[in-house]
Amino acid sequence: MQLLQELPMQQCKGNIFQIQRWSINDGEGIRSTVFFKGCPLRCKWCSNPESWQGKPEVLFFHEKCIACKRCLPVCSQGAISPAGNIIRFAREKCSGCAGCCEVCPTGARKLIGAAVTVEDVLKVVKRDTVFYRESGGGVTFSGGEPFAQPGFLQQLAAACSQLGIDTAVETSGYFDFEQVKDIFAYLDCVFVDIKHMDDAVHMQMTGVSNRKILANIAQISKLHPHTIVRVPFIAEVNANEQNIKKMCDYLKNNTRVAGVELLPYHDFGQSKYSAIGVRGQTFTTPAATEIADANRIISNYGIGIVDFK
Question: pTM for this one?
Answer without folding.
Answer: 0.93
